[in-house]
Amino acid sequence: MNGYQIEMNLSHERKQKPAFDNLQFGRNFTDHMFIMDYTEGKGWHDPRIVPYQPITLDPSATIFHYGQTVFEGLKAYQTKDEQILLFRPNKNMERLNRSSARLCMPQIDEELALYGLKQLLNVDRDWVPNVEGTSLYIRPFIISTEAHLGVSPSLTYQFIIILSPVGAYYKEGINPVKIAVETEFVRAVRGGTGNAKTAGNYAASLKAQEVASKSGYSQVLWLDGKENKYIEEVGSMNVFFKINGEVITPELNGSILDGITRDSIIQLLKLWNIPVIERKISIEEIYQASKEGKLEEAFGTGTAAVISPIGELFWQEKLVVNNGETGSLSKKLYETLTGIQNGSIVDPFGWRVLV
Ligand SMILES: *Cc1c(COP(=O)(O)O)cnc(C)c1O
Fold this sequence. Notes:
With 355 residues, this protein is α+β, with helices and mostly antiparallel strands. It folds into two domains: 161 residues, 2-Layer Sandwich (D-amino Acid Aminotransferase, Chain A, domain 1); 166 residues, D-amino Acid Aminotransferase, subunit A, domain 2 (D-amino Acid Aminotransferase, Chain A, domain 2, Alpha-Beta Barrel). The protein is built from seven helices and 18 strands. The strands form two sheets. Strands 1, 2, 3, 4, 5, 6, 7, 8 and 18 form a nine-stranded mixed sheet that branches. Helix 2 crosses helix 3. The radius of gyration is 21 Å and the shape is globular. Pyridoxal-5'-phosphate (PLP) binds next to helix 5 and strand 15. The site of pyridoxal-5'-phosphate has 14 residues, from helix 5 and strand 15. GO terms for molecular function: branched-chain-amino-acid transaminase activity. It catalyses: L-leucine + 2-oxoglutarate = 4-methyl-2-oxopentanoate + L-glutamate; L-valine + 2-oxoglutarate = 3-methyl-2-oxobutanoate + L-glutamate; L-isoleucine + 2-oxoglutarate = (S)-3-methyl-2-oxopentanoate + L-glutamate. It is an enzyme of class 2 (transferase). InterPro entries: Aminotrans_IV, Aminotrans_IV_CS, Aminotransferase-like, B_amino_transII, BCAT-like_C, BCAT-like_N, BCAT_family.
């Protein structure tokens, strides 16, 4: 017993579930949600599981005007023997607290948040899809709720967890994407909020994404906000390049999100004795490597896609990576990581958490 008391107010009705073999990302939500409140002076209180429902806020609530909010994203997987697994969920709760600290928001008890999540998953267990490649996407988030138009940290907050069954990111195996290097807009700057998972960063990224989509690119590769020279991330994923046998990823510099998939990839590469290095890497260096035929693979990493191979980069001209095909390392990383996550292979790091 951990002493946590979570009030249960379960739904009398159950929704009709969508077909698990044809799920769209983030469109369907389960029967319940976890919620707790924060009041300055009192701390977090009233953790509870309630039917999934709209929330009511005052129109002057600070979240609507100044965007004081943070979120997380992780997944639960169903194994062949019907167990439910989480992947390094404590990392998400830690990062949620780091994001909150940057936005002057209160810290949560990470143990309580994880316990609340497990309780919620138990209640909505039937919603963890069992079709190959599917999972239950978990979205914990905190919003500022005080009714006050002054620009200052809110005195009240809500922490909420919602769940959404999601399909395989790639219907027919992993497919390389076309990426445009963004030379006008930036996602984040050092000293800003780029290393926090907070709404404003995503609102700021939409324009570049829209422009790139119109030219037939699926994501943009972000460069640093100061010199427009060094690589930061791809879309809302971290990015890796394999050049001449060595794997390189931009170092965490304050404007890059510290991805849990990124960290897992680095640890896997180290386990396999494949050279991996975190350092500044410029777009010129990638361009040169490509021209010299040394750019072997490139891929994005994040919870949603796990690994997203890059088949083409546009910077000054079209740079094709690995003939536009998925590289062998990208494929091996994808298969290993998803295998660890869904319980089909051994987990040498103890990353899985049983619900
Ligand atoms: C969430 C996110 C990532 C990936 O993080 P994971 O923990 O691997 O899911 C990378 N970049 C940005 C901007 C993100 O929001």
